[in-house]
From TrEMBL:
Protein's recorded name: FAD-dependent oxidoreductase
UniProt xrefs under Pfam families: DAO
Feature: compositional bias, Basic and acidic residues: 22-32, 127-137
Stretches assigned to the FAD dependent oxidoreductase domain: 183-528
The keyword Oxidoreductase belongs to this UniProt entry's keyword annotation: yes
Cofactor(s) annotated in UniProt: FAD
Biased composition (Basic residues): 95-113, 138-172
Start-end of Low complexity biased regions: 38-52
Keyword Oxidoreductase: yes
Length: 543
């Protein structure tokens, strides 16, 4: 019928309706004009009645009366062969009937599955893909969530002291991917570096701390020394080497200056230089530039120092000073950009689970990286103890005064390197900005002692040290005092171990005064351990 003009199709439709109830008269319909209105009984090429043909389901009487054009292919004899250009329809399915063939239904199912298919998992995301569901069922489930009573149930479930619902319920990464969740308690360098590493690997990470990053605690100091020398311990040397690369990458990412190339000078004792020579050998194996100097060479090369009374010295020209407060904030910003959530709150452990104002925060993984607060939160579980040192800033004078134009010249910060004096138990950092020269005696101070940020005078023993080792600073006035807090382990190794009663809870800490510089590399190592990619070294066991 599609070959006729529109008017012809209307006439054929009316004729079909009229002839549907008329009886068949063989002699009249066989070809005599009769009631055809003078029209010929059949158009040229019409299908004869004897053929019994039915084209496209129309009654054969329409063909015999010439109301339709002839078929393109005249019917062949009943030989059982299909006409040219046509194919034989399959037999009706015993259960589905002729109109619903199995192949067509399978095609519909395949099309529906393709429509509901989820995109591929994003790189770095972990978890199982959620199976595809049919769209009507998904719509029904979505409709259930829009009911008022469901909203009230969710509101009751999420009511609590924290601001964001994500702090109470693990979230999904979308696209049917189930994301592993991690809660890091503590926004110091260890906690933030680990949170950033886990977020880069696709974890849904929350970081909980009562203070803003870089404002309080052990990671809030202005500056820290980054040195690679660790004597005969190649593991820490390699970790510091990788951490240096990590800090440089964070500098480029945050567009902030975090690592100053001051160089680091280590002054060894007169009675032995084994530590310095072992450090130099380890650095050379890594391809890191290093120099060994005599006491006289130290005085000639670095005018601010008096090398008398010291033994072999070790100079690392590529080491330097980290702007610790800025570096901590850069770590926090990088973790936040990768999806980590930074929450404010003071948590207490309940069998390892973090509880804030009576509400537990649950996650697939919980890490406690609270620095010196670890023994107070887990009494009797670890030998970590809080350790405090007082840092003094004095006004730069003589060779210690000047700008940073000499940075990276091979002689330190314009001849003013950071230093570690193993012979006298003291270390220091050249003036950075308006801070002054930082001098720190390696003496423990009671953590409960009061802190006076503007003292009038430094201790007498420290003044005598300046007169002997840094004579140009012997009479420099004091600018300020700063407190450096550490979490000290008896053997000065870090802590990375599971909670004895919970396999999903880990304790991380024990920086022992040399942990800050390892931040980015240590965070990657912790992420490897908690993901099961490697086992923690025995030196980091709970002790």
């Amino acid at each position: 019928m599609g070959a006729l003009p529109r008017a012809g199709r209307r006439r054929a439709g009316r004729a079909l309706a009229v002839l549907a109830d008329r009886p068949v008269h063989p002699d009249r319909d066989a070809g005599r004009g009769g009631d055809t209105g003078g029209r010929p009984a059949a158009l040229p090429g019409a299908v004869p009645a004897a053929a019994g043909a039915c084209r496209r389901g129309l009654p054969e009487r329409l063909l015999r009366r010439g109301l339709l054009p002839p078929p393109r292919h005249p019917p062949a004899a009943r030989t059982g062969q299909p006409r040219p250009g046509l194919r034989r329809l399959p037999e009706p399915h015993p259960r589905l009937g002729r109109g619903l063939r199995p192949g067509r239904r399978r095609a519909r199912r395949r099309g529906r599955r393709r429509a509901d298919a989820r995109p591929a998992r994003p790189p770095g995301h972990a978890g199982l893909r959620e199976p595809a569901v049919d769209r009507p069922r998904r719509d029904r489930r979505a409709a259930l969530g829009r009911r008022p009573d469901a909203r009230r149930r969710r509101a009751r479930r999420h009511r609590g002291p924290l601001l964001h619902p994500a702090a109470r319920r693990p979230r999904s990464a979308g696209h049917g991917v189930v994301t592993r969740t991690a809660l890091v308690v503590g926004a110091g360098v260890f906690g933030l570096a680990t949170a950033r590493a886990l977020a880069l690997r696709g974890w849904s990470v929350r970081v909980l701390d009562p203070n803003e990053p870089g404002t309080e605690g052990a990671s809030s100091a202005e500056t820290r020394i980054l040195r690679l020398s660790h004597g005969t311990d190649d593991w820490y040397t390699d970790l510091a080497h990788r951490a240096t690369t990590g800090w440089r990458e964070l500098e480029r990412e945050s567009r902030r200056r975090l690592l100053l190339p001051t160089g680091v000078l280590t002054l060894g004792p007169r009675d032995g230089d084994g530590w310095e020579r072992a450090s130099a050998a380890a650095l050379r194996r890594l391809g890191v530039p290093v120099e060994t100097l005599t006491a006289a060479a130290v005085t000639r090369r670095f005018p601010g120092f008096d090398g008398g009374g010291s033994g072999t010295a070790l100079f690392e020209p590529e080491a330097g000073v980290l702007l610790a407060r800025a570096a901590t904030r850069a770590l926090a910003g990088s973790a936040r950009e990768r999806g980590a959530e930074l929450l404010r709150g003071a948590a207490v452990p309940d069998g390892g689970t973090a509880v804030v104002d009576g509400e537990p925060l649950r996650a697939d993984l919980t890490l406690w990286a609270v620095g010196p607060a670890l023994p107070a939160l887990f009494p009797g579980l670890t030998s970590v103890r809080p350790y405090r040192q007082d840092c003094w800033y004095v006004r730069p004078r003589g060779p210690w005064a000047g700008d940073e134009a000499g940075a990276g010249t091979g002689s330190g910060f314009g001849g003013r390197p950071a230093w570690l004096d193993r012979a006298h138990g003291c270390y220091g950092i050249p003036a950075v900005g308006e801070l002054g020269v930082k001098v720190v005696p390696d003496v423990e101070t009671d953590p409960r002692a009061a802190t006076d940020p503007s003292p009038g005078e430094i201790p007498r023993a420290l003044r005598e040290y300046l007169r002997a080792r840094l004579p140009h600073l012997a009479d420099s006035p004091v600018l300020r005092r700063e407190v450096c807090s550490y979490a000290l382990m008896p053997d000065e190794h870090f802590l990375l171990a599971r909670h004895p009663g919970r396999r999903d809870v880990w304790l991380v800490g024990g920086d022992s005064g040399h942990g800050f510089k390892h931040g980015p590399a240590w965070g990657e190592y912790v992420a490897d351990v908690v993901e099961g990619r490697c086992a923690p070294l025995p030196r980091f066991a709970l002790r």
